[in-house]
Amino acid sequence: MIDSHELRQRDSYLNKLIGFQDTEPVKVITGIRRCGKSSLLKLMVRHLKDTSVLPEQILEMNFESFDFRRMSADDIYRYVKERIVPGKRMYLFFDELQRIEAWEDAVNAFRVDFDCDIYVTGSNAYLLSSEYSTYLSGRCVEIRMLPLSFREFLDFHGFEVHEIQSALGGLRKQVFDKNGERYELREVFDAYIRFGGMPGIADVGLDQEKALSLLDGIYSTVVIRDILEREKRRGQKQITDPTLLRKIILFLADNIGSSVSISSIGNTLINEGLLDDGKRKGAPSAHTVQAYVNALLESYFFYEIKRFDIKGKAYLRTLGKYYIVDIGLRNYLLGFRNRDSGHAIENVVYFELLRRGYDVAIGKIGSAEVDFIATTADDKKYIQVTESMMSEDVRNRELTPLQNIRDNYEKIVLSLEPGLDASYDGIRSENLIDWLLNQ
148 with 188: CB under 8 angstroms? Predict the structure, then answer.
């Protein structure tokens, strides 16, 4: 366990922020609660101080704090104006700003009235929704933050990977902790799949009871503050049933990586006896379920992935899939057991692709499916994810869709047991854990 007061690096995010330093757009850092947004602001503040920015040029306000949470947009403006240093550029940091009504008026005024560089965090996509985008259109840049990658998990928990000589003469990777204890890489990966990547778990250590307590706190905060409270603030009446919300969360968590339609969710909940349709006249309407699912997407609890027809080169309106932002949260919700590990590793790959800057879709080729099409402006990859490539049946199932794709982009199968063959007809077979470790 590492000292909980130590500020740990998140270099990929910090470097993005530094890249936008002193540019006009407002820097907006978004992501689920407790994924490290506040720490990223602190890292940026430290960087500024290390590069000769004076402390009085830096102003930090956290709207979860009692000092600021009752403020109006006008109060915030006055508070900042009183602290402006004449003739100096100011650096303004606003944490969890979505709690303040009309926050965008204050931010716009700062941009117009002062020489300042503005950084904002928010735990809800509503912060950047269409209602506000007109205020900041073209004037903000979003940095999406996720829980820890596997590499970051190793670093936060004090593990180091070393290559050591194997009995067969090659090199193999092993993991060492701060005390020099040695672990197999797979053991530590299994811990990641079990506990997930919420940074706070590094403060309590890999202890199931403490981890569950921490994850329970995150879950409650997301549900109560970012979904139920937010609906009240917006004056909306759509999301009022905490029980229904939890059941939809459990349904989506149990069905990550499976094709799901909005209409099927309500019906399934009734069929499984999770909703009492005696009290409700039938299933909740598709409109109601959609509102609840949208709230979960807006709070970054789940991410939706669309289907893309590879031959027709078009997105399909048919069933999408959902992935949960942190696999530890899924285990907290459904219980720590070896549940559906194939979909769990798929979940890990999906978020790793997002971290690496890819747009991700499900690929449809004829009646078959490719797990992920990952694209950037100048690159495309087709990726299948499976636990093992040892059996011939699995190899055929995973390789056939890729073999049917007629272009020359890279095609990869990621698995925990890739076998001895490094490629099949130009399709690369790679160890999933090695892939996670290679940037």
Answer: no
pLDDT in tens, 335-346: 977 768 999 999
pLDDT, tens digit, 9 for 90 and up, residues 230-288: 766 666 667 888 888 999 999 999 999 999 998 889 888 778 765 655 455 555 678 88
The more confident residue out of 129 and 310 is 310
Position 137 scores a pLDDT of: 60
Alpha helices per DSSP H over 285-414: 286-298, 327-334, 341-355, 392-403
pLDDT at 1: 41
Burial 74-97 (b: 16+ CB within 10 A, else e): eebbeebeeebeeeeebbbbbbbb
Q: For the chain, give percent helix, strand, coil, nearest 5.
A: 40, 25, 35
Exposed/middle/buried for 130, CB within 10 Å: 0-12, 13-18, 19+?
exposed
Please count the residues of the chain: 439
CB-CB contact of 143 with 29 (8 Å): yes
Residues whose CB is less than 8 angstroms from the CB of residue 70 and which lie 6 or more positions away in sequence, other chains included: none
Ordered by where they begin, the domains of the chain are: 11-144 (3.40.50.300), 150-204 (3.30.890), 302-439 (3.40.1350)
Give the pLDDT confidence score for residue 130 in this predicted structure.
46
CA 139/CA 47 separation, integer angstroms:
23
Average pLDDT of the residues of the chain: 89
Tell how far CA 425 is from the center of its chain: 34
What are the phi and psi torsion angles at 116 (to 5°)? -150, 160
Tell me how far the alpha carbon of residue 24 is from its chain's centroid.
26
Q: Are 247 and 223 in contact (CB under 8 A)?
A: no
- pLDDT value at residue 4: 41
